Amino acid sequence: MLVSYSESSSDEGEDSQPEVQTSYVPSQKRPLEENKSMQSQKKRSNLPLPDDIIQMFSKKKDDNSDNPELHEGRIRSFPHEEGNWATHVYIPYEADQRFFELQKQLFLLLQPLEFKTMTEYHISLSRTVTIRHHWIEPLIDSLRKEFAQLQSCACELQLLKLYTNDEKTRTFLAVEVSSGCKTYEGYVAAVDKCFKEYRLPPYYNPPLFHISIGWCLGDVTSKITDKVKDSLQTQLDDFFKKETDFRFVDVKEVHCKTGNKTFCLSFADT
User: Fold this and answer.
1) What is the count of structural domains for the chain?
2) Quick one: which of 47, 139, 165, 201 is 20 to 30 A from 207 by CA?
3) Maximum CA pair distance of the chain?
4) Nearest-5° angle of CA 219, CA 223, CA 226?
């Protein structure tokens, strides 16, 4: 243990030679004033900082990222940790005005439950996992190599489904992708292979490919009657009859989002 000691200086022989002290009286006022000045500066430097300044450098500011009140009541599946990057692999889906019109009609059928829109629309190919920053580049390289050997595809949207997340804190209304789309399983296998190198969990088995249309707080599946479910499916079927091309999803690329960065993974034919 290192201990720092301050050294104090004094004029030796001060008591034995008073005449010398008298001759230096004018000069002794300067050190005294300097000491007072130093003490004053020390007091000023020890004044407490305002709370808002302290909070700027406090780790507690990160707690806002986990505050449900700031995220419409949503709760993180895992707490935020410094140096960990939330990572997710998915097929992006470009929602258009027709999609939002369908969404509005479905939400009306679900009232009084309050379903909300998603921030983005996609078909997941992985769970959301956390990785270290120095894993990002090698993981993306591995994913790109895998998808460069795969082909793009087109799949069909079919049934409406209700899902909950693992923690049962949210319920999702989603459109399921045709189970006959085996190409998607190849995509998941490629992601699982890359994730395994970092001991990251694989995707759900069996995988359930879908596009989430909206979400509601809590597990509300028991509050949605079979009659309402039938009405939802009828609404979707009628929409598909009018908008025949809307039923099909062209998969041209895959995205991997890690933190605030999004990487594009291309296929062999794109």
Assistant:
1) 1
2) 139
3) 113
4) 120
Distance CA 251, CA 266 (A): 10
Q: Which pair of structure tokens corresponds to residue 163?
A: 């899902």
Residue 147 lies in a domain: yes
**122 part of the active site:** yes
Average pLDDT over the chain reads 81
- Which CATH number covers residue 90? 3.90.1140.10
Q: Is residue 89 part of a domain?
A: yes
The whole-number average pLDDT for the span 7-14 is: 39
Kindly report whether the peptide bond that precedes residue 112 is cis, defined as omega within 30 degrees of 0: yes
CA distance 165 to 177: 18
Structural domain that includes position 118 = 83-266
* 27-78 pLDDT tens trace: 444 454 555 555 555 555 555 655 554 554 444 444 455 555 554 555 555 5
- Stated pTM of the model: 0.71
Is residue 221 a part of any domain in this protein? yes
Closest CA to 164 of 77, 78, 103: 77
Of these residues, 80, 122, 133, 134, which one is catalytic? 122
Q: Which one-letter DSSP state was computed for residue 120?
A: S
What CA–CA distance (Å, rounded) separates 254 from 246?
Answer: 20
- 125 and 184 in contact (C-beta within 8 Å)? yes
Query: Looking at 80, 88, 210, 255, which residue is catalytic?
Result: 210
Is position 129 within any domain? yes
